[in-house]
Structures are given as C-alpha cells and as structure tokens.
Amino acid sequence: MNRSILHYRLNLFLLVGILSLLWTCKSADKAENRANDLLALEQLSEQEEYRIDVKVAFPFNTLATTQVLNALLIQNAGNNPNRIDVAGNGNFIEIRKDSVKGYLPFFGERRINGGSYGANEAGIQFDGKLENYTKQVNEKKGKLVLEFSTEQIKNGSDSYDVIIEIYPNENTMVTVTPTYKTFMRYSGMLTAVDIVE
C-alpha cells in the first residue's frame, strides 16, 4: 500500500513538473510574439505610404437601411444588412505622404440638408490633401492608428473623418464618419503601394 502511494505521488510530481515546463515555454512564446508584433507596428508606422484594399463593408443600420439592403442583397449569398462583401470591386484607400485617394462603397442614409441633391457620387470618393493627419502606435491594443480628414471629390459636398486601424498581420479596420451621411466601417488588407514614376 505504501509503495502504491509513493508511486502515485512520484507520478503526480512528474506530471506537475512537465506541465509547469510547458506553461513557461508558452509564456515565453507569447512574450516573443508580442515583441514581434510591436516591432512590426513600429516598422509600419515608419512608412509614409499605405494602400488598403477594402474587402467588407459594415453599414450603420437603421430600419430603413435594413429594409432596403434586405431587398437588394437577398440573392447574394453571405451578405446581410450588417456585413456586405465588396471584395474585388476595386474599393481602396491610398495614402502617399501628404495626400490621400480613395473610393469606398456607401450603404446608408444621406442626412436631409447636406450635400448636393441628385448627385451622381453615390460612394465615398476622395482625392486630395491629408488634413489633421496623425499616426500613433497603440501598444496596449496592438495596432497602428492613422487619423485624418478629407473631402468628397469634385464639389466637396461632404467631408470625412477617417480612422484606420492597422494590425501586425496587416489586417485593417476603417471607420469613415461623413458630415452628411451615416457612418460606415470597412475591413480590408494592407497591400503594396504601386510605384508612380
């Protein structure tokens, strides 16, 4: 009986030792991954040019928007009023030093007294100077945050506050807050910027 208790304790001690060894190795891996992520974010923050290819749109839903989008998206599998796949449609944001260019789809409501009536600019389009541009690495949340303001292309009928969150794996979240439209969110991927000669 004593021998079986001793054998049981020895096995238990060995099991606890192995588990604690594995646990410390896992903690070291997490710390190393976090350090690598922060290094990647620092390298991203040193860039002056970014291009984001937008893959998914997340509209701000009101009752009217939901009804319209349900009617329009019924035939497209995988889409719903909260999440619309826009991959492959050429939607992008491109930042080059002090200028920004972009085209993003808009699924939402235009507010009453803003913008031009009957405008043919259904999407969110901009091509101009960056205003109020800031860039900051948020170490706690593990992301690079770019913020700026810009205006609608052509007649400047709307202005936009844009927040871009870039993660170490180069996934992005974009929030666009227009003056005369409901806000939109987008997700996408950071891609290489085409070199202009």
TrEMBL record:
InterPro entries in UniProt: DUF4251
Pfam families for the chain: DUF4251
Lineage, broadest ranks: Bacteria, Pseudomonadati, Bacteroidota, Flavobacteriia, Flavobacteriales
Protein name: DUF4251 domain-containing protein
Organism in which the protein naturally occurs: Winogradskyella luteola
